[in-house]
Amino acid sequence: MRSKLNTPAAKDLSKLLIEARERLGLTQLQVAEKSGIHVQTYAGFEQGRLNPSWEKLYPVFKVLKIKLSF
Predict the structure, then answer these.
(1) Which of 6, 23, 29, 44 would be 48's cystine partner, CB 3.0–4.6 Å?
(2) Where are the domains of the chain?
(3) pTM
(4) By three-state DSSP, how is residue 51 classified?
């Protein structure tokens, strides 16, 4: 994972994650635990500070019930 400086894509991802988590009534800690990642890593995704790998992001999407469309 590399540090990022709040790119537009990171901001979009941040908004998506926060909205989905809040819709499900979950805390950052709950999402992180269910996704198998550290809570600080997940918080970094929500804050747009970290660029997640697909390996880290896929389980988060599953927990948050985010469906992908291509």
Answers:
(1) 6
(2) 2-64
(3) 0.86
(4) strand
